[in-house]
TrEMBL record:
<dbReference type="Pfam" id="PF01351">
    <property type="entry name" value="RNase_HII"/>
</dbReference>
<comment type="similarity">
    <text>Belongs to the RNase HII family.</text>
</comment>
<dbReference type="InterPro" id="IPR022898">
    <property type="entry name" value="RNase_HII"/>
</dbReference>
<keyword id="KW-0255">Endonuclease</keyword>
<dbReference type="InterPro" id="IPR001352">
    <property type="entry name" value="RNase_HII/HIII"/>
</dbReference>
<keyword id="KW-0540">Nuclease</keyword>
<keyword id="KW-0479">Metal-binding</keyword>
<dbReference type="InterPro" id="IPR036397">
    <property type="entry name" value="RNaseH_sf"/>
</dbReference>
<protein>
    <recommendedName>
        <fullName>Ribonuclease HII</fullName>
        <ecNumber>3.1.26.4</ecNumber>
    </recommendedName>
</protein>
<keyword id="KW-0963">Cytoplasm</keyword>
<comment type="function">
    <text>Endonuclease that specifically degrades the RNA of RNA-DNA hybrids.</text>
</comment>
<feature type="binding site">
    <location>
        <position position="26"/>
    </location>
    <ligand>
        <name>a divalent metal cation</name>
    </ligand>
</feature>
<feature type="domain" description="RNase H type-2">
    <location>
        <begin position="19"/>
        <end position="221"/>
    </location>
</feature>
<keyword id="KW-0378">Hydrolase</keyword>
<dbReference type="InterPro" id="IPR024567">
    <property type="entry name" value="RNase_HII/HIII_dom"/>
</dbReference>
<feature type="binding site">
    <location>
        <position position="25"/>
    </location>
    <ligand>
        <name>a divalent metal cation</name>
    </ligand>
</feature>
<dbReference type="InterPro" id="IPR012337">
    <property type="entry name" value="RNaseH-like_sf"/>
</dbReference>
Amino acid sequence: MSDAPTLDYERRFRRSGARLLAGIDEVGRGALAGPVSVGIAVVDLQRQKLLADVRDSKLLKVADRERLVPVVRDWSVASAVGHASANEIDELGIIGALRLAGNRAWCAVLAAGVRPEVVLLDGSHNWLSPDLQPSLFDEAPADPGCDAPVHTLVKADMQCLSVAAASILAKVERDRMMSELHIEYPGYGWDENKGYGTAAHKEALRAAGPTPYHRVSWQLL
């Protein structure tokens, strides 16, 4: 197993006076079908302790991810997962859909009475900060979206515990959604490929065409 992520990087933000930090990660960005999902795990930089066994979700077995979800939720000050559907990806593009899913998760954290002061986002591009176009939301949120400073870090899910925790929440919730959609459309193998472009998934697309859960604006084949 890889080295355990820590809170060392997150704790640097204490120098600027921050206490509540939201680690954020996404899953499903490159899939052909299903939603894109964004997880948030909020940590208290003054009090939070390390959490054993948590790694980037891609490094964990299915059973370990499932087992760690309640552990992560109990450990976090607050947590949430937001989703944007395939239709919303087609309408907004993947960056707009990531922003929509992320801000849905953000609003859920705010609804729980927690307001993070800083965000740590996996990757090199800040796709989270709200676009001022109201069309990004299909419902009118009580909050316009993430208004905290956003810091990006490549491979944050590998080294930062808050982001690794968020990745587990997003991965497990999205995988469960894809398994449920597999029951409706069993021919595409979503219980196994989770909507990604495997050879079997593409062969099913050639034979039967796309479903309402495919991202039809994409080059599927």
